[in-house]
Amino acid sequence: MTKWVYSFGPNGSDGREDMRQLLGGKGANLAEMASLHLPVPPGFTITTEVCAYQIKHGAYPDDLMQQVREALKSVENEVGHSFGDPENPLLVSVRSGAPVSMPGMMDTVLNLGLNDETVAGLARKSEDERFAFDSYRRFIQMFGDVVLGVEHHRFEDALEQYKDGKGYILDTELTADDWRELIEEYKAIVKADTGNPFPQDVHEQLWDSVGAVFGSWMNQRAKTYRRLHNIPEEWGTAVNVQAMVFGNMGEDCATGVAFTRDPSTGDNDFYGEFLPNAQGEDVVAGIRTPQPLTEHSREKNESDLPSMEQTMPEVYLQLCDVRAKLESHYLDMQDIEFTVQRGTLYMLQTRNGKRTAKAALKIAVDMVHDGLIGQEQAVQRVTPGSLDQLLHPTLDPDAEKDVISRGLPASPGAASGTIVFTADEAEQRAEQGEKVILCRAETSPEDIHGMHAAEGILTTRGGMTSHAAVVARGMGRPCVAGAGEIRIDTKSGTMRARDIELKAGDTITIDGGSGEIMRGRVPTVEPELSGDFATLMGWADKIRQLAVRTNAETPNDARTAVKFGAEGIGLCRTEHMFFESDRIVAVREMILADSAEGRRKPLERILPMQRDDFAQLFRIMRGLPVTIRLLDPPLHEFLPHEDSEMAEMAEATGLTVDEVRARANRLRETNPMLGHRGCRLGVTYPEIYEMQVRAIFEAACQVAEEAGETVEPEIMIPLVAIDRELKQLRELTDRVAAEVMEKHGRTVNYLVGTMIELPRACMTANHIAQHADFFSFGTNDLTQTAYGISRDDSASFLPSYEHQGIIERDPFITMDPDGVGALVQLAAERGRQTRPDIKLGICGEHGGDPDSIRQCQEVGLNYVSCSPFRVPIARLAAAQAALKAG
Ligand code: ADP
Ligand code: MG
Ligand code: MG
Q1: One MF term from GO for this chain (predicted)?
Q2: Burial class of 57 by CB neighbour count within 10 A (0 to 12, 13 to 18, 19+)
Q3: Do 5-243 and 392-525 come out as alike in CATH topology?
Q4: Which of 217, 431, 766, 781 would staple 237 via disulfide (CB 3.0–4.6 Å)?
């Protein structure tokens, strides 16, 4: 018999923390907390397998009903009241919980088990009518919304109208009788909207809610979130049914959320927010401004609301105790949810807290220094991709800034953009290439696409744990939250901070690290790799086996990469050196010439410029290896297009404009990416490669002479498909190199190799390796040629492939392991057969992608090469890959 239901509570738990796949993160951690003797209200978890079963069969497993009945019975025994008992009813929450947390993505129903009869029992037992009827109306609203699909705002509107009629401002002003009246209205709304009365049978309520939570796994919000975070649909969600505790029974009650350390900075400060006399999601919804947990954070944020430390000192101490227990057990920063019922603390959730990259680094490094975890664990704690946040510019401290207001520093980084007020508009404008800042009173899961499209997010309500703050931190978007001074008027498309009015389309800058909001665009400065970041990188370097190089051709890129720890250049493209305005005429002269002699003359003018380029790079790289790829792009790309360019060429060559046009037309290609390019240029126009090789070796000799620096160039021949292509071009290279070295009386150690970027090259790698000291996998072109998909045209259909689930990931972002990865593996094996010590690297975009780096580790490449700003990401990903490989 399959166990579909797992109980948890003070009497012990069936589940454990490491059963998240089966119980979901929430269920597994509720079980674990109960086992640690933390105060967890009893309940049970219906497994993710039931969700999968239900999707597959359209029905629940036969024995589920029985197992749920038994689990419910033991909850009843534990708390001493019965579900549906009109005298003393047990109420439960029905909560979703997937294997990985999807904040706010799925639905929860609270206070389930209330009906016209049990509400009276609850009122008598609690001796608080107001509380009982308030709970009932909340239940009707949540159940109506989540289970029956009645729009949330219908209830909100009814409430607002009622309050207006009575002249009330706050919900707390409503009496028991007021709620009673509203409940009748709520029930009428349900009846009108669904055609059925609000269900009074508590078991029907329970099963319908369970069904709705399972169903929410497939709602649009959840689907979008899964797509953005690469969460497989098959996983399913679990459902947790848990005895209710009440934070809304009076002023000695509260509900709150907290992080065991500051999720923004990583400081070892208890960080949280709570609302007295409130229930459930009131805190995250941003309806009332929550109060700080500690005096420390009250002072820091200059809040005038009293802290829990001050108003509920005993509960606060209990909570501090829980904090210490959780950290020493989980050995990681936790994000917790709790409720206080009449002075007693209950724990409702814990999970590893989401944090900014800065906080992740600080927490990992601090925990190593405190002896809680080791360096290897620390290295695994930081998501490589998140480092991107720290590699982005921050505000120039010397820049002038016109600060118009401030809010909470909810997610660090600085961003400038134009103001938009809706998620849809953010998306539309971003698609046009505009940088936007999404400004909202608060955000909700419906805004995700707009938050994703925006450079930064600004909200005027809600705290550090509001939806906007949590989601922005997860996405690495700068966010300033709860800027209470600002009033947004969506209708008129304006936003007002005291006496300053801004319109949609005006430019602002937000600093999510300080909370400042500024008018206009404020200049930024480049990031530094120092402090905790440098410490963790040092640990990663000790662990990793893959070397990390960079793709760079300009001195600026090379310098940045070296600063970020690059151990050489893995790809220096030489074509950009041909495109600069002072060179392009010579280049065009060369390709339009109709003889080798005619080509030599302009090449001689280019030679000294190329030599200087290389010399500059060699100086910056100070003896580190530099892989230079000889000219690769189609000749087609260099042709003159405009009439003015034709005229310019006519003047330079002494030909007529018509002759120039005729020659250019001869060189035009239908399919240039598969045309006259790569080593084919070297085979047909050997003078070009000769000039480049000469420039490289003259530069190497020159730098060696002036600086005593050893330079080890690695000459890379692109787009080889046939071993004889490489044989011929290697001979050319060796010959020119020998000439230059002889002339300078110096030996330069160098390698000659090829870029492997065609399937035929992979298949014949054993032959190609006879002439290659190294292979560098050019996986952009290899992906293009393996799939037969043009990289430049894929945008019109690949997204649709992803949506339809035909492919899981864009193969140009993460290397496709089954096709392209297999080709790389095969080429590596065949290359090593011929030349066991052949040097292997990767220089496609994939060299900076953590999942692809893992594949490179598995194949046993020597290095990855990526763009300068991804070098730290690659260093960390390489260390994690080495640890994973064991
Ligand atoms: P989410 O996954 O969106 O955080 P939860 O299932 O955690 O949703 O529920 C949201 C909130 O509802 C919780 O933080 C808690 O405040 C409240 N809640 C859930 N279950 C209970 C319960 N058994 N008793 C009291 N409050 C509850
Ligand atoms: Mg929760
Ligand atoms: Mg290529």
Answers
A1: kinase activity
A2: exposed
A3: no
A4: 217
Mean pLDDT by 10 residues, the chain (886 residues): 96 95 97 97 98 93 97 97 96 95 80 97 94 95 94 91 90 91 97 96 97 90 82 92 95 95 94 92 71 93 91 97 96 97 97 92 97 97 89 83 90 91 94 94 86 94 80 81 90 90 95 92 86 97 98 89 96 84 85 89 93 95 96 88 89 90 90 93 95 97 88 96 98 98 96 98 98 97 94 82 86 94 98 98 93 97 93 97 94
Angle between helices 581-592 and 657-667 (to 10 degrees): 80
Q: Please say whether the beta carbons of 781 and 634 come within 8 A.
A: no
Query: What is 5-243's CATH number, 3.40.1180.10, 3.30.1490.20, 3.30.559.30, 3.20.20.70?
Result: 3.30.1490.20
Q: What topology does CATH give the domain 254-355? A: D-amino Acid Aminotransferase; Chain A, domain 1 (3.30.470)
Q: Does residue 153 carry a catalytic annotation? A: no
Ligand 1 pocket test: which of 81, 93, 248, 347 has the largest number of ligand atoms within 8 Å of its C-beta? Answer: 93
The verdict on domain 574-751 having CATH code 3.20.20.60 is: yes
Establish whether 498 is an annotated binding residue: no
Closest CA to ligand 1's atom 18: 280
Instruction: Indicate the pTM of the whole model.
Output: 0.82
- Which residue among 30, 72, 110 has the greatest number of ligand 1 atoms within 8 angstroms of its CB, and so is best to mutate? 110
Q: Please give the CATH number for the structural domain made up of 392-525.
A: 3.50.30.10
- 774 CA to centre of ligand 1 in angstroms: 57
Q: In angstroms, what is the span from residue 247 Cα to ligand 2's centroid?
A: 15
Two structure tokens written together for 868: 């300068």
778 is in an annotated binding site: yes
Other CB atoms within 10 Å distance of the CB of residue 3: 11
Task: Indicate which residue of 253, 479, 679, 843 is catalytic.
Answer: 843
Q: Looking at this protein, which amino acid is placed at residue 464?
A: M
Whole-number Å distance, alpha carbon 187 to ligand 1 midpoint, is 24
Active site residue 439: no
Whether 553 and 447 have beta carbons less than 8 Å apart is answered as no
